[in-house]
Write a structure and sequence with these properties.
Aldehyde Dehydrogenase, Chain A, domain 1, Aldehyde Dehydrogenase, Chain A, domain 2, globular, 4-stranded parallel beta sheet, alpha/beta, 16 strands, 2 domains, homodimer
Chain lengths: ~425, ~425
């Protein structure tokens, strides 16, 4: 492209900031009108979207992109219907903007409380999935934020076609065109500019593989809400109900292999290992899960388990592979999780009240669970209605990030001419 | 110093992480015991603290440091008593760790809610004020966080003496020595290492001048909770009560000149300017405040006002200087504040309900006020009990940051063997 990328991105940033001022005062009805219109236009334009997507797919195939990426890139009629339905569901969610809470009178006579407000301008950087365009735009719009979307170059035509529906919806609801902007260059320099637009962009949400997220976190000059990998654990205590333990371990590993809330390492209390591990191994073998164990696991499951290396404890397989470790008890389990885990989601299976309580407090993860499968760590399951992703960061929103995670609270002071003495 | 700074800081980081695990499960009684002991030791060691401080002061004087810095560096018997009292007040505050909220049953049968937990390891980087050592250590300890403190080299001996009291208090309460670590080298490279200890340090809180904070924000690889400057505004609407307007404007500017919540620019509605500006000018002149105005202000206050330049609108004077602008009304006031302000604290004086409501929603600042002086933006005035500073960032804690700002919420899921279907 024959433009100055720096200047172009600055222009996008200024336009987004201006639009965000309008969105910050836009009422709920108007935002919902835009969202419902966008959903209808996505359905109406299904054929156009499929045609644009076909162009992207053809280019990706001839460039020899791997099948998994082609899968993520592909739109189907059912996928498009789902995309529209997702936007409608976001319209149906309560508007978090303007929520006022915790108001109380202070000794000085002022009344102090909080009001929830949009973050301002959110930059979304993603890879091949075109549905993120509709999804992220809808979440940001509903939460009163302007968005700058930068999708992968593989999905360029698909994203532009979806953006067209978004812009038509905005226009119908009389909202600024620049409330949602899609970067219309595939130049990689645009990403570098976007993540350094201090004062124009308030937060970056990268969605994609670990290397993308690491690169963005490293180079960004504006805050990043990160969605890193999930190296999730289930610890089966010796006070666990064995049937529940087996069901949870099996569900946490085999319900879906490629999700970030899938269990990657199973920890088993040493007093329970001789009884439980052979039963678990039977079930995992039925499902075709490869087991990699510590020495004690291997001694119990002679010949059925490969040796686990130090690297296995830190690995997110995203595949039918499970690392297993026998631990002395709760303390070793907690230490192992805090050391090797990714602070995403970890569960204990136990009927012991005190151990459950300690696990919840001491495991330093975004989601901690008792007697439930790690697969529940999800914005829909938690009742957020939708999520922009799952944060493993410790500041701002942690765990599944929904509309509230795209807002923050400001302090409100109401007085009657109060001055400070 | 003859040590490898990188290795030294890594060692501090690992020790802090280990201590943070203990603190995360330490009960409230034990943390309070440590805090009360620290307060007593500070009082007991007042003479030692004064002697250490005298060494720092002598070095600073002979190095020709400016009087304002010497002031910040100086400990007095009264200041030491206040430091101890501050630590006791933090002991008396409710413990935020473990607060559980928003629990509800989901359609799946799991019960989902949130639990407040410490951030982990907090790095504090500050300049000449030795009292920050006690203050920050106490806030972090109460909120269950391990701390690495890096004070200015000018306060080296004072900080070490205070750290001694902190460590004695920790020992008395049987808490790990490394719960609070004071960097014991004045090598500037230590700061660069501290702010890049990814995985060992969870958040950096820089306290000091703007240039320090900008440098740290630029170079940090771990999240930073920032406390930048305050370019605060008061907008006097034409529906304002004139007596209240004058009292608030005067208090916001002249109560203290050097604080971040002091008003730096006054905006006056054009319909009210002819009546109000001469009265305001009288009062500001009595107090010796230099006025710098826009053209319309100067026309009204002929000869009493210097011209304000574009730069004045963005300037935090921290001095008896005030910029004044006559605006067309609410829209121009909001635009001016959002454009030139620092998103710290801004107030409207009005008796008009709708304008007050719009100002609260549309001004994009950490604190927004109606009919109250900006000077109220303060952790104590808001009821936080104490504050580590005031954040102008938009993610995580905004405005005055107290104990809650040093914690975050994790998700808790309670099941009875629930798996995801």
């Amino acid at each position: 492209m024959d433009i100055d990328i720096k200047e172009y991105m600055q222009r996008l940033g200024h336009a987004a900031r201006k639009a965000s001022r309008v969105l910050s005062r836009t009422d709920t009805h108007q935002k919902n009108a835009a969202l419902n219109a966008i959903a209808s236009f996505i359905e109406r334009d299904a054929d156009t979207l499929l045609a644009a997507n076909a162009r992207d797919l053809a280019a990706a195939e001839s460039a020899g992109l791997e099948p998994a990426l082609l899968d993520r890139l592909r739109l189907t009629p059912a996928g498009i219907a789902q995309m529209a339905e997702g936007v409608r569901q976001i319209a149906a969610l309560p508007d978090p903007v303007g929520e006022m809470s915790e108001f109380s009178y202070r000794p000085s006579g002022i009344q102090v409380g909080k009001m929830r407000s949009p973050l301002g301008v959110i930059g979304i950087i993603y890879e091949a999935r075109p549905n993120v365009t509709a999804d992220a735009a809808a979440l940001c719009l509903k939460s009163g934020n302007a968005t700058i979307l930068r999708g992968g170059s593989e999905a360029f035509h698909s994203n532009q076609a979806i953006a067209h529906c978004v812009h038509e919806g905005l226009r119908l609801a009389d909202l600024p065109h620049n409330a949602v902007q899609v970067v219309d260059t595939t130049d990689r320099a645009a990403v570098g500019e976007l993540i350094t637009l201090t004062g124009l962009v308030d937060v970056i949400v990268p969605r994609g593989g670990k290397s993308l997220i690491e690169r963005i976190s490293r180079d960004a000059r504006v805050p990043v809400i990160k969605h890193l990998d999930g190296n999730c654990h289930v610890f089966i205590d010796d006070a666990a109900n064995p049937d529940k333990a087996i069901a949870i371990a099996l569900n946490a590993k085999t319900h879906r292999y490629g999700t970030c809330n899938t269990m990657e390492t199973l920890l088993v209390h040493e007093s329970f290992a001789n009884y439980l591990l052979p039963k678990l191994a039977d079930r995992f073998e039925e499902k075709g899960v490869e087991l990699r164990g510590c020495d004690r696991t291997r001694a119990i499951l002679a010949g059925r388990v490969k040796p686990a290396t130090e690297e296995d404890w830190s690995t997110e397989y995203l595949a039918p592979i499970l690392a297993i470790k026998v631990v002395h008890g709760l303390d070793e389990a907690i230490d192992h999780i805090n050391l090797y885990g990714s602070h995403h989601t970890d569960a204990i299976v136990t009927d012991d009240y005190s151990r459950a309580r300690r696990f919840l407090r001491e495991v330093d993860s975004a989601s901690v669970m008792v007697n439930a499968s790690t697969r529940f760590a999800d914005g829909f399951e938690y009742g957020l209605g939708a999520e922009i992703g799952i944060s493993t960061d410790k500041i701002h929103a942690r765990g599944p990030v929904g509309l509230k995670g795209l807002t923050n609270e400001k302090w409100v002071v109401l007085g009657e001419g109060h001055i400070r003495e």
